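Project standup — Tuesday

K.O.: blocked on the structure for the chain from last sprint. Re-posting the sequence here as requested.
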Amino acid sequence: MRSSEKDRNMKNIRNFCIIAHIDHGKSTLADRLLDFTGAVTEREKQEQLLDSMDLERERGITIKSHAIQMDYVHEGEEYILNLIDTPGHVDFSYEVSRSIAACEGALLVVDAAQSIQAQTISNLYLALENDLEIIPVLNKVDLPSANPEEVTDDIVDLLGCDPSEVIPASAKTGLGIKEILDAIINRIPAPSGKVDAPLRALIFDSVYNPFRGVETFFRVINGTIKKGQHIKFVNTDKNYYADEVGTLKLKQLPKKEIKTGDVGYLITGIKDAREVKVGDTITGADNPTTEAVAGFEDVKPMVFAGIYPVDTEDYEELRASMEKLQLNDASLVFTPESSAALGFGFRCGFLGMLHLEIIQERLEREFDMTVITTVPNVSYHAYTNKNPDEIILVNNPSDLPEPSTLNRVEEPYIKATIITKADYVGNVMSLCIEKRGEITNQTYLTTERVELSFDMPLAEIVFDFYDRLKTVSRGYASFDYSPIGMRVSKLVKVDVLLNANKVDALSALLHVDNAYDIGKKMCEKLKELIPRQQFDIPIQAAIGAKIIARETVKALRKDVTAKCYGGDISRKRKLLEKQKKGKKRMRQVGNVEIPQEAFMAVLKLND
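H.V.: unblocked you, prediction finished:
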């Protein structure tokens, strides 16, 4: 009797996620599913229910993935549906891949007005690699601009499915929600796994709770996890006790045990978020599993930037704020550094530009810290002539060895996929070629829409690439990328000198072909932004000892010859010479303050 009950329990579980491009209605669809299954009461209802951070709600994006369990009765039988929500942005693609690995099926949501976009395709490939059952959902069919027939054809071409399998829906009005739930039960397979095998569970997310420590979200693949059990995390090789396990309704629901195929949360009293790594395997300490869940990797930061307090006295406060943020976000890495121009601060590693923006905004909102962010750069590998095989990691331009000792520098490359309307192909191509991209493929998805693939340096997309792509394509291009390794590149370090003093916070590693151009633009931009002083300020861009560009901020001058009217010219000359000497002496002791806009302006050189 008991084994058949176990089988029935597993047979009635469905684990699924929702994959979609940004703004295709993923969070709204999740809201409607929760309403329909009665997982939320009238009182708890709100828009974007699973997006709990203010930032997520304002920007309309999902930053952290979430999981929630729904109960649904279908043809007289009770089913448990576990929705594992995923972030949509390319910066968080590793989190997406782990959430997908915890599921058996996925709802592929496509906007009927916008059709298939780049991230839809990249997340779809992730789902297909994990052998997920895909249920295509055509969302926003109630919009006047919707084009359901054409977009259905695009989905059929992409998936090779039958047009009748595409479910037309509107997450706003609730149209098609019942059909989606029926499809989840009928099309997505029940979890497979052995209840009697040793415990093997996949961690797909964790969140920091200030009162209870780190809450770990997992999916049991084999075996059972019980309250009070002695457990072990395979990749970090640490042991803990399961103080509490339970399932994830809107509020956590403690249980005695979580069985094969189900999704739940675990509290072990861990206080350091870095000990719980997404993608790790949980197993029993007494009877461990022999094979960990495949696909685990340590998340590596892609973009680095210096974060400094505006007031140097706030350094310790900034450190405390960063440590608290790191509890919530284990992918943030930081080390102390100092700069002659900005004092003490931190060199931080981020998953991408969106991650950097979010961290900066959270520092300002949650901790009241006003910070200066230096020019973001990526991580390079440098090799010296003395030891050509030893990799020197360069996360900061000042770490680059002297040009005389340098053998070569390698920079990270990415494979960029851009989907755009056929009318804008020329504009998009010229933008990518300007950013040192090499086109590798061009495919017409339909007569109107083209998919372009480029190999390009990651450093080139860090600054303003995304904004400019939207501009040249009038908002019609969508963009996705994945890293493809390091390649040798001709890079030089461009320094900015103000009044003959190096400003290390404005140094940048640039490709030789762009160095002169960007050096000149930097000098021109700084000339506009640095306020005039009582003396001339030379602004120079230099590679090593060679000056490649120069601008001068002219001094504010008093008209010392105003009182000399008529008379000999030598009297005027004497007064001007005296003023000139004073200005020269002033320039030797003068100090130039750099406004915060100057650091930001370097990012927007093309505006």
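K.O.: great, moving the ticket to review. The domain at 200-284 is CATH 2.40.30.10 (Elongation Factor Tu (Ef-tu); domain 3). Residues 569-589 form the longest helix (21 residues).
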